[in-house]
Write a structure and sequence with these properties.
The structure is a homodimer. By secondary structure, the first copy, chain A, is mainly α. Chain A contains six helices and two strands. The two termini of chain A are 38 Å apart. Chain B binds a DNA duplex through helix 3.
Chain lengths: 146, 146
DNA sequence: TTAATTGTAATTAATACAGTTACAATCAAT
DNA sequence: ATTGATTGTAACTGTATTAATTACAATTAA
């Protein structure tokens, strides 16, 4: 299928809301930075609101972060948008009568879980604040060299 | 889309070939353990052959591991079947005129890479031999309790 | 020589996703 | 209070990825 950019786009939205907190933040404005449609932005923001990451008000273009950016990690955003789904897919339909088919799902599931948690720990190491500061540094670097 | 089970099925195939190396290993037999069609098995085996993990001979139902199972890790199989693709997808189309849109791809790409490598290191910790031995232990445990 | 098998291409059906359209509910400014 | 802008949400569409299927030439082994 088409690959999901929900996670990346949601991070984008949250960083945008924080960096541009002093201007008017309609879904239209945010959409122009993400380069998608305002409906897609509103849909993602609904998910972020349900996850307790932002606060919005219907009819008013004033979304706000619901928590300090130091207290939001990339893992929080990942769970909000993708849930705790497997990172590597098991084949759930294998022959239970066979030694391999009857045991591989349990065994592989354990290994996959360990790899998933390792990745999630890394995501949990980075806060929205870290990301924003890094973006601002990269921008300054661009401005002096360009 | 439908989720890919190539990685899991390929691991299954390799474990099956090793455990049942003394019987006739047609794609039909392997398919009955994976519960899929022989064509799917042959297609996956073609990929594993190209990656240097198995040796096959056209017309002959005798696939063999090309390396010692101690020298094949889950990561080797992952790279063979999925390649070194991103584990988390960037949105590659963001507004370069915006501070966020113009920098987030680079910054997020770095964080994603770190998380991906963390997961890959875990996959690289497990060999096909480990997997096979764990499957055989689980099977024995089943047999004594059932 | 022949039956079985591999290797591979082409096609199909299912599924997940962003994007789009449409519109009711709500807000903010007057 | 009225009005124009905005959010929230549902329904639908187009696209891309995948396993499964069909078909068949090439190869093997008895």
């Amino acid at each position: 299928m088409r690959v999901s950019t929900r996670f990346s786009d949601s991070i984008h939205i949250l960083a945008f809301i924080e960096i541009y907190k002093n201007i008017r933040l309609s879904s239209e404005v945010i959409a122009s930075s993400v380069e998608t449609s305002p409906v897609v932005i509103r849909r993602l923001m609904g998910v972020l609101r349900e996850a307790g990451l932002i606060a919005t008000k219907q009819g008013s273009a004033e979304p706000k972060l619901a928590r300090d950016p130091k207290d939001i990690t990339l893992l929080d955003i990942y769970f909000a948008t993708e849930g705790n789904k497997p990172l590597f897919e098991l084949d759930k339909k294998t022959n239970p009568e066979c030694i391999v088919g009857g045991n591989i799902q349990d065994v592989l599931g354990d290994y996959y879980e360990q790899a998933k948690v390792a990745a999630q720990r890394k995501l949990n190491d980075t806060t929205l604040q870290d990301l924003i500061e890094t973006i601002l540094v990269k921008q300054k670097a661009k401005e002096i060299s360009g």
